[in-house]
UniProtKB/TrEMBL annotation:
Protein name: ATP-dependent 6-phosphofructokinase
GO cellular component terms attached to this protein's record: 6-phosphofructokinase complex
Coiled coil (residue ranges): none
Reactions this protein catalyses: beta-D-fructose 6-phosphate + ATP = beta-D-fructose 1,6-bisphosphate + ADP + H(+)
Length: 324
């Protein structure tokens, strides 16, 4: 490999800059030219490509967002778009691509591979919803941001003796909700993977807890379930307890990455470049059982994952409602 292109695609995630920085510096150290592709696959199709030196990635490891910008690119799902993207790579001499993003971005990378461009995926998403890996860049920062926000909502919720529904991100996955549910000691955790919740039961719990003197009732709701505002109205009407919904939204995607996100993202960025240099083709980097690993991109995309039963059971067991 002579020239590596790096892009970020899909929703941004804190730690992406650490991965970009690592890819650039590892590539340069190994004698490879590194180019940054702006705005994901969209920018690739429009030939928005810059040279990257070691200095260009200075002072980026601590920054949230992505210095390369990002986009969700519908055109990459068309054969025409895929051909165009591969042509631009070839025109720029890019013979290896590092794609930092989620499953959708890996699907784009896989299509580029079919067009003859070797691509390596790095899992970058706050949702933790990539099956081949136990770690995705940005989850740790996002879940810490959400945890701190929920602590704050809880202060005011207690003062006003309210019930609070806090909606966290995660698309169709409930990992942020599960982790916050445990970390914030939520009374209820609603996950899309466990869509068996009984609103009547929650209402009974709220009334019962209030009777026992509990001042707040925190419900962490995953965005994959959603409808937090209407849920709050129904709960308030049924319990007579003031209920507010707080949707944390995009604040969960921003901010300076945690130490874990900086370190894991750095290693994954370098690992992806090492794969390209060693001649491996069409891989996805992952973290499993304490090791950095890589999988064939097609195999990675075919894997599935869901919320670990035991973690969910313990989350419920530790909540006030169910702990008696
Ligand atoms: O995939 C990351 C994520 O933040 C999801 O949690 C959320 O569903 C989605 O992206 C929001 O996307 P957008 O930024 O396009 O509104």
């Amino acid at each position: 490999v002579h020239t590596i292109g790096v892009l970020t695609s899909g929703g941004d995630a804190p730690g992406m800059n650490a991965a970009i920085r690592a890819a650039v510096r590892r590539g340069l150290q190994k004698g490879v030219t590194v180019k940054g592709i702006l705005k994901g696959f969209d920018g690739l199709m429009n030939d928005e490509i810059i040279d990257l030196s070691a200095k260009d990635v200075s002072d980026t490891i601590e920054r949230g967002g992505t210095i390369l910008y990002t986009a969700r690119c519908a055109e990459m799902r068309t054969l025409e778009g895929q051909k165009r993207a591969a042509e631009v790579c070839k025109k720029n001499g890019i013979d290896g691509l590092v794609v930092i993003g989620g499953d959708g971005s890996f699907a784009g990378a896989q299509k580029l591979a079919e067009q003859g461009i070797n691509a390596i995926g790095i899992p970058g998403t706050i949702d933790l919803d990539i099956a081949c890996t136990e770690y995705t860049i940005g989850f740790d920062t996002a879940v810490n941001t959400a945890m701190e926000a929920i602590d704050k909502v809880r202060d005011t919720s207690t003062s006003h003796e309210r019930c609070s529904i806090i909606e966290v991100m995660g698309r169709n996955a409930g990992y942020i909700a599960l982790w916050c549910g445990i970390a914030n000691g939520a009374e209820d955790i609603l996950l899309p993977e466990k869509y068996d919740y009984d609103e009547q039961k929650i209402i009974e719990n709220i009334i019962e807890n209030r009777r026992k003197g509990k001042k707040h009732h925190i419900i962490v709701n995953a965005e994959g379930i959603g409808h937090s505002t209407s849920m709050a109205r129904r709960i308030e009407a049924a319990t007579g307890i003031e209920t507010r919904a707080t949707i944390l939204g995009h604040m969960q995607r921003g901010g300076s990455p945690t130490c874990k996100d900086r370190v894991y993202a750095s290693i994954m960025g370098a690992y992806a470049v090492d794969l390209l240099i060693s001649g491996k083709t069409n891989r996805v980097v992952g973290y499993k059982n304490g090791e950095y690993v890589d999988f064939d991109i097609n195999e990675a995309l075919a894997m599935t994952k869901t919320i670990p039963e035991y973690q969910y059971e313990i989350a419920r067991a530790l909540s006030y409602n169910y702990s008696k």
